[in-house]
Design brief:
The protein is of the alpha/beta class. It has 12 helices and 15 strands. The structure holds magnesium ion.
């Protein structure tokens, strides 16, 4: 039943065939306002337009979130392409609720589209952890039981950035990351350093520079940054390796690391000493865990990034960020940093710079149906 538009809430569908045969997959397309616009080198964003997936099978309800957005600014995927790939090729591959590993193997015939694949792969992790009756953060292996939390701060005027970064230090965040762009890098870091002293600070350039900008990037060496994230092209490794030879600031790769194979190449060419793992970018948890283990074997630091996810996607990130294989603070801020009101009833709270993953089975989120309804643009039944 592909592309069947529903005009009534999913929970009002009462027809239930034999439980073990029943499979329902719903995509809730939502638009939820951000508290303040988030400004990166790509532009300003004031809404998160997301796709929340809900699967009902075998008496279990699982959730996930695609990390794509309206526009293909972070990567080539956007909500429209991801929805198309899921509807046309991927949805039917989860009919029997395979293990996440099996699903990833099955969908190899679709090239790329890792964010679309991640949305369903992570749905299966939630499903299988719930089937076992254990929290996802335990289901995925050795855990620290909590996640160190850093904060990602978008670009703003000098006073506003001073205010936001000083507040972040006071709130107990373990690391601050500020967005930079070409031509503003020195001014931004200088201003922030003057506000927070030698507090752990990193910068994220979101691909805004090229090797020709080496001199400008070298200027940042004096600020003793924990790392500089993805200064060069989104799918580059070799130029980052060259840049790493030219500057002292450690390089962290984000956009470039799309798989364990790409991580292997980045590590062996010494393009980075830090990797930002975003499960939604690398086709899900199977690949995320493989990258984290590979990095650990090679003494490379890892942390878990975010894509302005709602409480659903955030719960996956917090579970992963609590893994023993992750050693740096991630961008897993409490929900209230981004949204006035989230679509979950149990948002994360930060205590002393840590967030504790949910203890309920799977991702452990309690969906706020009323809020979800309010921010829903439309709802499509895919299975
Ligand atoms: Mg980044």
């Amino acid at each position: 039943m592909v592309g069947f538009f529903l005009s009534w809430p999913a929970e009002k569908i009462t027809f239930r065939p034999k439980l073990w045969l029943y499979m329902e997959l719903i995509c809730h397309r939502i638009s939820i306002p951000l508290k303040t616009p988030f400004v990166t080198s790509f532009g300003a964003q004031d809404y998160r337009t997301a796709m929340i997936f809900e699967m009902k099978h075998n008496g279990i309800t699982a959730f996930s979130e695609a990390v794509t957005d309206k526009e293909p600014f972070y990567s080539y995927e956007d909500n429209t392409t991801a929805f198309h790939i899921i509807e046309a090729y991927l949805a039917e591959q989860i009919k029997d609720a395979p293990t996440p590993e099996k699903f990833i193997d099955r969908v190899k015939f679709v090239k790329g589209h890792l964010m679309a694949k991640a949305a369903l792969e992570m749905l299966l992790w939630d499903y299988h952890a719930k089937e076992e009756g254990i929290p996802l953060y335990r289901y995925i292996g050795p855990t620290n039981g909590k996640a160190q939390v850093g904060i990602s701060i978008g670009m703003a005027g000098p006073d506003e950035m001073k205010k936001q970064t000083s507040n972040a230090v006071e709130m107990g965040y373990k690391r601050i990351k500020v967005k930079i762009k070409k031509g503003r890098e020195d001014e931004i870091v200088k201003n922030v350093r003057s506000a927070i002293g030698d507090f752990p600070l990193s910068v994220d350039a979101n691909t805004d520079f090229s090797l020709e900008d080496t001199e400008a990037l070298k200027v940042l060496d004096k600020y003793n940054l924990v790392y500089m994230e993805q200064p060069l092209d989104h799918d580059d490794v070799m130029d980052h390796a060259e840049l790493a030879r030219r500057i002292n600031t450690p390089i962290c790769l984000d956009e470039s690391i799309i798989s364990r194979d790409r991580a292997r190449k980045a590590i062996s060419s010494r393009a980075c000493t830090v990797i930002n793992i975003k499960p939604g970018r690398v086709s899900g948890f199977t690949e995320s865990l493989a990258i984290a283990k590979l990095a650990r074997e090679h003494g490379i630091h890892t942390w878990v990034g975010g894509m302005l996810e709602t409480g659903v996607g955030r719960a996956f990130n917090v579970a992963l960020a609590s893994s023993s294989f992750i050693d740096y603070p991630g961008d897993t801020s409490p929900n209230e940093k981004y949204f006035e009101k989230d679509i979950v009833k149990n948002p994360f709270k930060m205590e002393n710079g840590f967030i504790t993953p949910n203890e309920g089975p799977g991702i452990g989120v309690e969906i706020d149906r009323e809020r979800l309804e309010k921010v829903t643009i439309d709802r499509v039944r895919l299975l």
